[in-house]
């Protein structure tokens, strides 16, 4: 039986309070679970596969991943996550053309970039970009053939960068 206590509150209002007690336990409360770790490499592969399906439907050739572009895209996603800023150019960071050149693509004739913060899956990121005419145009530009994808997990937030190039 739970203990019951009556209390006289100001204004002569009588309240009845039921006191509850937690069961005695020698075990500490479980620690909160950390957010699940996202396998960003797997997400990048899923994104590339999905982008290539959409490109094929639009009559474009498949994008070919390049390690140097991947490094540039990953570094940009990490920088956005570290600063909490979604931008194609962060303060003190080179513009896309210079980032692409530093990645080994000095003769890039054409380039494009799409970025995002927040989507938790390759499908949701791609859907967001395809719903935006400027982003859709970049992803479906058949002249762009090389790609680097960078997905960075910062806290519970995902930061996305896709750099596309034609040399």
Automatic annotation (TrEMBL):
Residues 1-26 form the signal peptide. The keyword Signal applies. InterPro entries: CAP_dom, CAP_sf. Keywords: Signal. Transmembrane segments: none annotated. It comes from the Bacteria. Residues 48-162 form the SCP domain. This is SCP domain-containing protein.
